[in-house]
């Protein structure tokens, strides 16, 4: 194992659940405003996961007041308090960009079986 992998291993968090595209997740993120900290929850569908090691990021999409909102989170960021997986969707591709064009009930995903 080279030096870079050893340093990355120290910064990886083991308390986070495995995240896959198609999952509906709640991301609890620590927000600092004017010296105060609060927790903000962002709930949506994971549409992509990319990168490896400590540079892994995932993008979550939700529809808020009829407008699609996407937010990209670094997986091993210290600002992420916790991640809850509320639903595991059954999908057949790694990037779910096609959800951007769909509206309403068409955006629902089938639940993944065990």
From TrEMBL:
Spell out the GO cellular component terms annotated for this protein, sorted alphabetically and separated by semicolons. Answer: cytosolic large ribosomal subunit
* SUPFAM superfamilies xref list: Translation proteins SH3-like domain (SSF50104)
Keywords in alphabetical order: Ribonucleoprotein, Ribosomal protein
Q: Which domain of life is it from?
A: Bacteria
Q: In Gene Ontology terms, what is one molecular function of this protein?
A: structural constituent of ribosome
Q: Give any single GO term for biological process.
A: translation
Q: Reply yes or no: does the keyword Ribosomal protein apply.
A: yes
The keyword DNA repair is assigned to this record: no
- Kindly name one Pfam family recorded for this protein: Ribosomal_L19
For this chain, the family text in UniProt reads:
Belongs to the bacterial ribosomal protein bL19 family.
Q: What does this protein do?
A: This protein is located at the 30S-50S ribosomal subunit interface and may play a role in the structure and function of the aminoacyl-tRNA binding site.
Q: Can you name this protein?
A: Large ribosomal subunit protein bL19
Species in which this protein is naturally found: Desulfofervidus auxilii
